Amino acid sequence: MHFGEFELFSLSDGFFGLDGGAMFGVVPKPLWERTNPPDERNRIRLALRPLLVVAGTESPKSDIEPQRSQRVEEYGAESRPSPDSVPSVVGPISVPGERVLIDTGIGDKWDAKSTDIYRIEHTDTIESSLARAGFKPEDITKVVLTHLHFDHAGAATKLDSTGKPVPRFPNARYYVQRKEWDLALNPNRRSRAAYLPENFLPLHEAGQLELIDGDFQPVLGLELVLTGGHTPGHQIVLLRSGGRTAVYWGDLIPTRSHIATPYIMGYDLLPLETMEQKEKLVQQSIAGKWLSFLEHDPDFACGVIEEENGKPFLARSRKSTDYADYAEGPEPGPRDVSSRAAG
Question: Considering the entire predicted model, what is its pTM?
């Protein structure tokens, strides 16, 4: 869809499953299972929906030369890089044709046991949905990671011909909050299983990692907002252009069932912070009629949050294969290139 100066493509890396109780924390099962039916192992189906943002007028591929920061020292199997070894980035930068990928999905570096545990369904992949949008991994100039959990950063890397994990997007700068990087390098016992080094250490090794401290604009009109809550370094993405705003909620609001303030994941490290951020930002979203992208909702890629009798809900929502217009303005619904089977 055309969104002011941006072109937006809703992508897919398939589906996966997580424990329903963990996804809804203290909310009783009789409430959440009505809209999120669990399987025989209590897992609910969740989508993996990265978002591709093309800024300005598309430029010839040969004209895009991402700036390289100084290569940092390589890491060893027993010695991870110091967080201070990666310099912070400065900006913003506006380049016509910038192609910014927001999150990457779960990736394909999984063995059979883990694929079964997490019920990974590769009905689609990040590369195949990019191809349907007319792009290759080499075309991506920036990757924004809301955080470094495996279902968001898993496809940031891939295995090369020798089985070594390397960046999947070789010409991109990867943007991560420094707080998130620090936690990923030194996870606590509660969060360790969500941070898989093969998903993010190769970004450092290749010299493609950019650490940021707080709110930041890597591209004019595209703002990374530090929210914390889910993790200390969790960030959402705001797009502002043509008098309109869109938001990619990441795991602050992973599905439409999580719009209500009390619906908070058991995975959140700072749940009270999640509640505070949701209360504030959801009200801003309602007032501004923001277009909301939901990364994990199994049925709807996006919609507009409205309020009725004091209760917020996703209105004018769109399934992944629905191109109907939104009520706000003449813009068509977001162009979604996830597979029909993945809807």
Answer: 0.85
